[in-house]
Write a structure and sequence with these properties.
By secondary structure, the protein is an alpha+beta fold. It contains 11 helices and 10 strands. It is 51% helix and 22% strand. It is elongated.
């Protein structure tokens, strides 16, 4: 069920993005004859008065189709409401609207979080340190059997108290134990387990096991005093997420070789979402907002087949006094970019799928 919830979150964000394009076109009177979530074979479709709405088999995105290049379209090629016949500004609004929709949606989700769940007002600590994520099944933590959601209650017989300092205590002991086995006492639901994990030595000579760590417990919420407080807190959180996301992409560009292996695809995102839905459903809201912001930032990059690539072509057209680059050249660039993006997507899906816990268990049994 948690996996279906995570897939539903991704589908919703794709829907929001494509709805932005579609609404911007229709509000300006521009023809849009297709609205599709997913790619590939059609699973379901409905023919409206002007638009065909469809769900497709491969849930890796979606698209809004325009009749401009449809040879069977009854619309005359010189119709002013065809996308290609509209001014540059009108087309730019349609192309950028998906990104804007994702950003507005992210802010709305954060505002809903503070308005419905309340405003964070402290933290109720419980004994131990929680493991939100095991970074890879083939790192020391993964090989030892540690799982997302586990609570580390003790390390080498030393209990971890219910406080923020316990996270630092556990981290320091792991760092100080490169290539030395550690015994972790784990609480996993009603079970208590003991796992033997041996930290590997990182480039600084310290131990690491490949996990994220966080204080164990639950945040305390209070009712917001005014709607202004809700909107203000949402704006602050939104700004922080945007800054974090942009900074991550800058780091990727500046240190591509080192950071690229950490890039995650839809399978890993669904896995994270499923873990969140299973352990703390309330955290799905900020997770949804963060993924929506990431989707917006990715799409605004000036790369072929992305919204940013189309905006780049429009910018060149504006600089050329309204004279676009040859249509065949634009199509070739876009098709090449789409091929590369699909290839990257397939690579990430295969890589992340092979790292799933049940896949690793299956491979080990062979």
């Amino acid at each position: 069920m948690s996996v279906l919830v995570a897939i539903g979150v991704l589908a919703l964000l794709v829907f929001v993005h494509e709805l932005g394009h579609f609404a911007a076109a229709r509000l300006q009177g521009i023809y849009a004859n297709k609205f599709s979530i997913g790619f590939g074979p059609v699973l379901w479709k409905y023919q409206g008065s002007q638009t065909e709405y469809a769900l497709r088999a491969i849930p890796l995105g979606g698209f809004v189709g325009f009749p401009d290049d449809d040879e069977n379209s009854p619309i005359p090629p010189n119709d002013p409401n065809l996308m290609r016949n509209r001014p540059i500004a009108d087309r730019a609004i349609v192309i950028a609207a998906g990104v804007v929709a994702n950003l507005i949606f992210a802010y709305g989700v954060l505002a809903a979080q503070y308005g419905i769940l309340g405003v964070p007002d402290g933290f109720r600590y419980e004994p131990g340190v929680i493991v939100p994520q095991v970074l890879a099944p083939d790192n020391p933590a993964g090989r030892a059997g540690l799982k997302a959601g586990d609570v580390v209650q003790a390390i080498d017989g030393q209990s971890l108290a219910g406080e923020q300092a316990s996270v630092k205590q556990l981290m320091e002991q792991i760092k100080a134990s490169p290539d030395r086995p550690l015994i972790l006492e784990i609480q996993r639901g009603p079970e208590t387990l003991k796992l033997r994990v041996q930290p590997e030595t990182d480039e600084t000579g310290q131990g690491r096991i490949g996990v994220q760590l966080a204080p164990n417990g639950k945040p305390i919420y209070r009712r917001a005093k005014t709607p202004i407080e809700v909107l203000s807190l949402a704006a602050d959180r939104f700004e922080g997420m945007v800054t974090q996301t942009v900074s991550g992409f800058v780091t990727l560009a500046a240190n591509f070789r080192e950071v690229a292996p950490q890039v995650s695809g839809p399978v890993k995102i669904v896995e994270w979402g499923a873990n969140i839905a299973q352990s703390d459903a309330a955290s799905l809201l900020p997770f949804m907002a963060l993924i929506s912001i990431n989707l917006a930032v990715i799409n605004i990059l000036p790369l072929p087949a992305l919204d940013g690539g189309q905006l780049f072509f429009l910018a060149i057209e504006a600089l050329r006094g309204g004279k676009p680059l040859p249509q065949e050249f634009q199509e070739n660039v876009m098709q090449t970019g789409l091929f590369l993006l699909l290839g990257l997507g397939i690579f990430l899906i295969v890589r992340d799928t092979t790292q799933l816990e049940w896949v690793q268990r299956f491979l080990q049994q062979q």
